[in-house]
Amino acid sequence: MAFDFLVPVEDKVLAHCELLPPQSIGKNIYMHTSRKGLPVLANASVALIGVRESRNAFEKKPEKLDVAAIRLQLYRLMVGNWNTNIIDMGDIEEGETVEDTYFVVKEIVAGLLEEKVIPIIIGATQDITYPVYRAFDGIVDMINIVAVDSRFDFGMDDELISSHSYMSKIITDKPNNLFNFSNLGYQSYFNAQEEIDLMERLFFDAYRLGEVAHDISLSEPVLRNADMVSLDARAIKASEVGLPNSFSPNGFDGREICAIARYAGISEKVTAFGIYEMENTVQSSQLMAQIIWYFMEGLNYRVSERPSSDSSDFTKYTVPADSEQLTFFKSHLTGRWWVEVPSILTSHTKSNPPALLPCTEKDYLDACDQNIPERWFKAYKKGFN
Description:
Order of helices and strands: EHEEHEHEHEHEHEHHEHHEHEEEEHH
Distance between the termini: 36 Å
Structural class: alpha/beta
Largest sheet: 10 strands, mixed
Helix content: 25-40%
Shape: globular
Number of helices: 13
Radius of gyration: 21 Å
Strand content: 15-25%
C-alpha cells in the first residue's frame, strides 16, 4: 500500500502544536504521528502531503525542502469559520529512483481522490505536477490544469523530465488525458517565442503577469474550470519571499498570490492543489503557509452552481454577434458568469446541451461590443464538450 511510504510529521512540529491556542490550525488537525499512525480518511476534506523529492530540479537545490518549517508557520494560524476537516499525512521522502517517488505520489494522490479528499501537495520541485496529473487516470476522463508560473515549462524536445519541462511530458505522454492547460502570470522574457506559439497552436490559455496583476479577478474563471492547480513559488517576486538571489524581482506579490489561492479553493472543480519550488527562508515558509490558509478559506465558500434557462437563480443574456449568437448566464447568488460554447463536433439536443465555459462580466460586455471573447473562441476551436 502506497500510504505505507509516508513518513510521520516531525516531533518538533508536534511539540510546537502542544503550545498553540485552541483556535489554531495545529489544534484542529489530525496528524500522521509515529505513535498514532495515519489519520483516518473518513470525513476528511483536505490532506496535506510533503514531497521532498528534488533530483529532477532544473537548478540543483542546495538543501532539502524543510516542510516542517512550513508546517510550523501554518499550524500557528487561526482557523476561520470553517467546516473543513484537515488531516496531515506526513511526507514522501526520496525513493530509490525519481520514478519510484513519482509512483508513490501518484498512488497516494489517486487514493485521496477516490475518497473525495483534496490533496494539498507541498513539493520541493514542480515536476511533481506530473505524477499528480497521472493520479487522475481512471478517475476523470479529461482534466484541465492551471499553472501559476512565470514559465510554461515545456523545455527542449530531447530534455528529460525536469521542473522546467514537465509540461512536455504531460502533453505527449499516453494516455493523454489533458483537455486544457492554462497559465497564470507568465513573464515573456522567460519563455521562448516557440513556446508562446505552441500555446497558441494548442489553443491553451496564457495570461501575462501584468494582465493578471492589473485585475486579479481575471484568474477566477480560469481557476473555476481547473481540476488541478500547480503553483510555482518562483511566480512570486523575490522581495516577498526573502530570496533576492534565486527568485526574480518581478512576480506576484503576497496579496495577489493569496487571492489566486483563494479563487482556487472556491472553485468547486479543483480537486488537487500543489505548491512547489519554495526555498528555506522564514519569509518563504510564512507566505506558503498563508497561501495554504487562503486555499482552505476558499474551500469553505464553495457553491455548486449549474446555470440553466429554467432556473430563477440565473439571468440569461443572448448576444447576437456577426457569425454566432452567444448565450451568457449570470448567477444571482455569486455574481459569477458563464457562456455557452457549442461543440463543433456534435449537434445539440436537450440530452446533449452546449458546454458552459466560466467567464467574466467583461467577456459579456466585450461580446455586446461585437468582440468575441478569446477564451470562447479557443474553447470553440478545441471542440469544447
